[in-house]
């Protein structure tokens, strides 16, 4: 079996409409993959920068996978939430990216979007907050059924991911 | 300080995993000879006080004078003693104290009493060096890890801003002038009880925080008083702190080395420049023996192999390899952003065009439609996953005359969705899927066909756009034959850009020897290796067929006479 170490950080987020952001993250892998060590999901703190447009999280990621095959390469999916002054959390963005397959350190920008509802829902969202959410967050990293979704562009999340691979060359895998 | 060759006092901080019991510190204590002592510059007051205070036993000045007289008479010889961790060495005062059973109240003191009696029988020679161990609970010795607030300020002028870090670091790296604190006994019996809480803002407190309680201490002391005033002038030579939890050892002042190779620390008894002692702290902890070293290495390798066994059991061994004669290409990617398109609400329709010899595990994933997304500042975030597991059959390639196989293309069109649910094409583009393994970030520029001016007007006001009949026209059209690809006659205009990310993983049946592959992916070599393997397989298969045919022919022979069959079988 081959092994993959994923070590990195969820560095920051830019381009979101307001401050007070936090991020839920998770790493999904296919059926042939097994987590040997490390946490595959988590949540960052709420960052409230005083004036910058950048929310800094620097949240650590450290997972060790073992795999039976290349199929189902792990992907990280992110949900950015806004924590408002009344203590409510509303979804500000969904995003995902594949973990880079080549070994080394990679700077990855994950683009995010959020679903939009009907006109009445958008009207309510503007004044009261809240908004549409995905019923099944799996849709973020699933290519089927995507065409039914109406979304709007949100900010992007910046990751720094280091990948260490082991034994892939032995099985004829070039990464 | 009168003499220049003095050592500055730092606190040495050491990290160790070894048992602290192995720690040994050798102390050389030397009384500086009278010839080396500079002339005293203060005369009157001290002499007056000497005369006045000669009768009163408690005055420190008198102690000094008597100490000097005693020291001058004494031949200045080095006193060398090796202290191991928490080794109790009794001072003369303590010997006197514990000799009397009436002074002993606790179990520890009674134990000391027994020890003192045996020591007393062995030798009664006067020795200055002694130690306080952790159990002594000597808490009212002032730590000399203090701050000199007015020194070591890096900036000139003004009151510098002292933040917590500066203070803490300065307490750690005490670059202070080392002034040994004199230890006064106020009450000779009560001293033995714990009086105060330790760790009120010294370096150790900052360093270890709440782990303070787990810290063990040992003091190496010197009784520099005269013979008739035992225990009056006790000086701390060295404080050793050991924190078993963090494995940190603090030695203050730090270990300096042997007397002939390093500068000494200096003590002036009662601040008197004429009565000076020098001392050296030397680390003499013995190294481990060869046998132990081998044993330790054995244990270590055993632990390591055990851990790697556990890991191997967790990880397992099996791995799905791709069948011989094929090359598997896995593509993990995203369509990330669409930029600079005219319309606001956009989505992408894409498909992969597989040339001859390629196949895919699940055909459904080869085409798709993304979610529609509203642009902000001309930028659309799609984040649409692209997941293709493709296979290249190398046996098909052998028939064709091409050296390098045709690579699959990703063709796409960007469409806009308007308020009434109508969509029209905003751009066409295609990209050849990267043929080298690794991470690829690509930007594709797109175009769209334009018709007559009236259709442009219609597009602006009503919507709708000329479209391509055959979308493969964006690349090399399917019907195309011949040497020249001409697209003349099609009027187009540029539209926006599409950013994509591809992670490409190539898997071949033979293992990759990275050292033999210079530079980046040498796909051609891999291909030739794979075709070589397959051609070897073909030869083997042909051999097997011939062999079977031969056997069948032999069986025909067997029916006629049996004896040659045995000979053939033997020779075979």
Automatic annotation (TrEMBL), chain A:
Primary location class: cytoplasm
InterPro entries (alphabetical): C2_B9-type_dom (IPR010796)
Localisation per UniProt entry: Cytoplasm, Cytoskeleton, Cilium basal body
GO cellular component annotations of the record: MKS complex
Residue ranges of coiled coil: none
UniProt entry tagged with the keyword Cytoplasm: yes
Record's keyword annotation contains Cytoplasm: yes
Keyword line: Cell projection, Cilium biogenesis/degradation, Cytoplasm, Cytoskeleton
GO annotation terms (biological process): cilium assembly
PANTHER family assigned: B9 DOMAIN-CONTAINING, B9 DOMAIN-CONTAINING PROTEIN 2
UniProt family annotation: Belongs to the B9D family.
Full protein name: B9 domain-containing protein 2
Record organism: Frankliniella occidentalis (Western flower thrips)
TrEMBL record, chain B:
Major location (coarse): cytoplasm
InterPro entries tied to this protein: C2_B9-type_dom, EF_Hand_1_Ca_BS
Top-level taxon in the UniProt lineage: Eukaryota
GO biological-process terms attached to the record: cilium assembly
GO CC annotation terms, alphabetical: MKS complex
Annotated compartments: Cytoplasm, Cytoskeleton, Cilium basal body
Coiled-coil region list: none
Entry keyword set: Cell projection, Cilium biogenesis/degradation, Cytoplasm, Cytoskeleton
UniProt-recorded name of the protein: Tectonic-like complex member MKS1 isoform X1
Gene symbol of the encoding locus: LOC113207198
